[in-house]
Here is the input.
Amino acid sequence: MVLKSYDVLVEKVKALPEKKRVIVAAAGDEHTLEAVFNAVDEGIITPVLVGDKAKILDILGKMNREFDADSIYDVPDPVDAAAKTVELIREGKGDFIMKGKLETAQILKPVVNKETGLGQGRVMSHFVLNQLPNYHKLIVTTDGGMMTYPTLEQKKDIIENTVDTLKSLGYDCPKVACVAAVEKVNPKMPETVEADQLAQMNKNGEIKDCIVAGPISLDIALDKEVANIKGYDNEVAGDADVILVPNIQVGNVLGKSIVTIAGGKMAGFIVGAKVPIVLTSRGSSAEEKYLSLVLAAAAVAGK
Amino acid sequence: MVLKSYDVLVEKVKALPEKKRVIVAAAGDEHTLEAVFNAVDEGIITPVLVGDKAKILDILGKMNREFDADSIYDVPDPVDAAAKTVELIREGKGDFIMKGKLETAQILKPVVNKETGLGQGRVMSHFVLNQLPNYHKLIVTTDGGMMTYPTLEQKKDIIENTVDTLKSLGYDCPKVACVAAVEKVNPKMPETVEADQLAQMNKNGEIKDCIVAGPISLDIALDKEVANIKGYDNEVAGDADVILVPNIQVGNVLGKSIVTIAGGKMAGFIVGAKVPIVLTSRGSSAEEKYLSLVLAAAAVAGK
Here is the structure.
């Protein structure tokens, strides 16, 4: 199974017998609450709010929202709210996390705590699922910026995080393209060397449940015709489910190209912990925020 | 002046009182000759052919083309054809170069020769002019891959090559965005440090005739609204004429995104020598080849 569009995913989540519960850490933030309650209206999620209760009630009041004040966990300090959020996940009081008004590092600190956290022994990475204007299915780009210049081992973790997430979304054996500027391994381009090593690790069974190709250029990964012209024959060519970028500079330009230049849709969350962690910024569109909640709900439903 | 679209450039070149002369090095190649004669039909250029005469005449015959056989420089060996091409440029027998059936390194070797070449004391870079689906003018992306991991000094050369080329196309003071994943200088991200240094070199007059901003993310460079949301205030934000990429990995993914994902148009040539050098590959679309010849003709007309 592969996902053809976000509509499929939205329908899937709306049809769930029980709404997934998002724990919002430091929820006293207008744009976060708007995104959350927009998704509530659409029947996507049930919210659990952690943060400055007075502030949260004030914002909900201005939004004309009715919400059971007693259900709010009153933890005004963002660091404490993050710790409480992780504790609630461990107690089974919620299915995934959304970051509110606190720094990314603040929410991640209790998540990565070796004893009381939600780690799984891998690095965490940003999983972004994109709907492109001219591609025949959704496509993941990763890492979106958690690991700035990942090592080979970290790239392996990133692939495994991504494959696990796609499996929870229903994929059988995703096709992963480790992109680089050229298809030939060139010792002067470490990106090509590591892409080749990842493909080898997949061949020898170290990276499982997926097909990894690389080094492969982006156009070959996305367009079978280009692959044919360039004589590149591979299952991944023209049919990639995942674009693994070599570092944050490439990932950032690719992400911005997809949204700003191509007008694509994107949504995502942090993977590698026991539950998804949705981060959206003030700059994110309402649609991106909504689809990120949809995506996280679908991922936890499939676990 | 800025160029809004390729149509403007095509009209400009068609209106030139005299057609610019392209010297085709190792012209015995079907896809090269097709591109050249397509541009001849459109009134863009006059060709000067250097290469294996028998082969060239054979291909032209199959294409049902009439061409003065006596005007062909019969130089069957590609290395010799490259040398002859450079010699002809120096003798004023042509205005720019197009690479035919030979390696890029083969055509560049006589070009960079210190005594008999066409160098200008700078590195050479690939200048690509793109027409994006949603941007209000054409935009350059550079370097397209001549310098794989340019140093700071080489990035300065690349900017100067680009600005000189844009000036010959009629631009007054192009806006250059040195892109990176973040806007804040971070010593752990050398791309941001060098982008900042380039902006400083522009402020202190070392890089002239343009406005350089950086580090700046791609979306801020292209979209004023995003710039406003992120509180980034700068003349280049939302109005960049040039995207300077930090290395070949970023440049390649950006170029492939523009064409494969966004369906943009692109064309380009190598700059830094005394005349443009057009390189197109078998994989290039007919339109890209045509527009590259248009672009080179326009650039030499404006010198």
Summary: The mean pLDDT of chain B is 95.
